[in-house]
Amino acid sequence: MPKLSNVPAHDTAKQELMTDAVLETPGAEVPEPTGFARLGRSNFVLFLAWFALILLLKWPTLTQPPVWDGSMSVFPAAITLAENDFDLGYLLEQPGYADGGPNVHSVSLVTWLTAGIIWLLGDTSALFPLIHLVHFAVAAATMAGLYRFAKPLLGNVMSATALVAVLLFPLVLTQAGYMYLEFPMLAATTFALLSWTGGRLAQTTFWSVAAVLIKGAGIIVPAAIAGMALFDPRPTHRDRRSGLVVLLLSTTVLAVAMWVTPGGSGATDLRDHLAVMIQYLRQVPDLLILMVGYLAATVLLAPWRPKPGGDRSVEPVRDDEQNRLLSVAFLFAAFFGFYLLVPVVLGIAAPILPRYYVQVFPFAIVGLLAALRLKLDDRVLVLLLLLMMVWSGINRNGDMYADNNINSFALIERSGAYTDLLDLQIMGIRALQDLPGSIPVFYDQPAHYKLGYPLMGYAEEGLANGHSIRHELPFRNGRLEDFPPEFYMLYESGLLDLGREIIRSIWEQAESDPNREVVVDVICSAAFCSGIIHVMPATVP
């Protein structure tokens, strides 16, 4: 290729354009990309490839109703919006989560997207498949974006292999089938970091604000960007104000969202908070090992450290790959800073559920591999990734977890075993509907949502004789004398204490009362069981 100084009418400002022109001359042959490189050149083809893989893996979930938190937050809010002409003011006037109302994630982009689809289709058999397909599309776009982020660090083959391993990881694969917030949050995180490392400030701001509007924890993204701006040496990013603009704008949006929607409650302290975090991670050991592995490798091997140049008078500058790894490090710092400090500072009891790690887990794998490449051959790393895929395949339904019948939806959703617990919840709601309509029925908060919003697919209609034991007085006081002579209760397995302990207390009081008789009808799905508890006056001997 001729030197630019020999090109007539050379202008420095046009150097990039003229260089491209020279490269395209007949004398300079550019090899045609093949394999993964060719696939990576087409974002649309890449998206379709990921979408097809996700559709194949998650096909059984297409008709699945919203699960756990989705059935108690996004969907009640979305249904309320769709049924009331998208009147946000009306929704915000409704009770919040603590009071069993639909005002939860009311301004979330996912809630509004769900509401739009509900408004479009209504209560039809196509509703859940379409919403699932939309979430599959979000997941596919996210995986394509992660591939673009990883490719400069790992190359085409290892990037593709690593991200297939990420998708197959049980915790991630489970969330890919949910109609909830984790993959949209990962999408905003991915494209924000991708935009920042590409020098696109407007797009970075857009995706950072989108992260905040998906979920309050999205503030992790602009916080990471702001931290990165302090250390990024590139001329286009050297102005620290750009990172602060992203952070301040996103914080303002978050503050408005928190002001108009109810907040959490429940005091906590750092020691208890750390104990719960460690307890949860110990029950997802493969996640724990990989997360600790990333943190150790990135600290000890420091692949993000700038490489010193030959001229000691010139300050070392990070290349694009090192800047990407540094952005991952700041993402982790912001992630743990938020989830460890915010609950303590604001007095909000907010345990770090395993599914929250989906926001950073793919970046942990990419960062871990980039660090290990400094010491290990690529073929060894690909072999390790293949072994990770085999492990994930064997453990897809949690079969390798020692406590796979653990009585907590927050933990059982670490793998496909959650479907058994979901089936149990559906069976429990339908059992309630088969009970005599003249006898009062009591249930906890999750059942309250499922019965109150039949469009979610758990119940054909609400129960006229039903009572949410966590919200209604005097029943929530947990005194047997406040209850009628005869009643039923649904004691559900696998959920947080959202009324379940009150039901258990009433159950124990009734069994100890000589004037009461208790009959329990047990309902089971795989290793999980619930009970329909029938309390009635004791029969005369």
Poorly predicted spans: 1-30
> Major β-sheet, in short?
5 strands, mixed
Secondary-structure content class: mainly alpha
- Physical arrangement of strands within the biggest beta sheet: 2-1-3-5-4
Rg over alpha carbons? 27 Å
Please give the count of helices.
23
Percentage of β-strand residues: 5-15%
Q: What general form does the structure show?
A: globular
Order of helices and strands: HHHHHHHHHHHHHHHHHHHHHEHEEHEE
Distance between the termini: 105 Å
> What is the overall pLDDT average?
86
Oligomer: single chain
Count every beta strand, where a strand is a DSSP E run of 2 or more residues: 5
Question: Portion of residues in helices?
Answer: 55-70%
Written overview of the protein:
With 541 residues, this protein is mainly α. The chain is built from 23 helices and five strands.
In short:
The protein is mainly α and 541 residues long. It has helices at residues 15-23, 35-41, 43-58, 69-72, 74-83, 88-93, 109-121, 127-154, 156-168, 170-176, 182-197, 201-214, 220-231, 240-260, 270-282, 285-300, 320-346, 361-372, 378-394, 409-412, 418-433, 445-452, 500-512, and strands at residues 441-443, 466-468, 487-491, 516-525, 528-537.
Topology, element by element:
Elements: H1 15-23, H2 35-41, H3 43-58, H4 69-72, H5 74-83, H6 88-93, H7 109-121, H8 127-154, H9 156-168, H10 170-176, H11 182-197, H12 201-214, H13 220-231, H14 240-260, H15 270-282, H16 285-300, H17 320-346, H18 361-372, H19 378-394, H20 409-412, H21 418-433, E1 441-443, H22 445-452, E2 466-468, E3 487-491, H23 500-512, E4 516-525, E5 528-537
Parallel strand pairs: 1-2, 1-3
Antiparallel strand pairs: 3-5, 4-5
Helix pairs in contact: 3-8, 5-7, 8-9, 8-11, 8-18, 9-18, 9-19, 11-12, 12-13, 12-14, 13-14, 13-17, 16-18
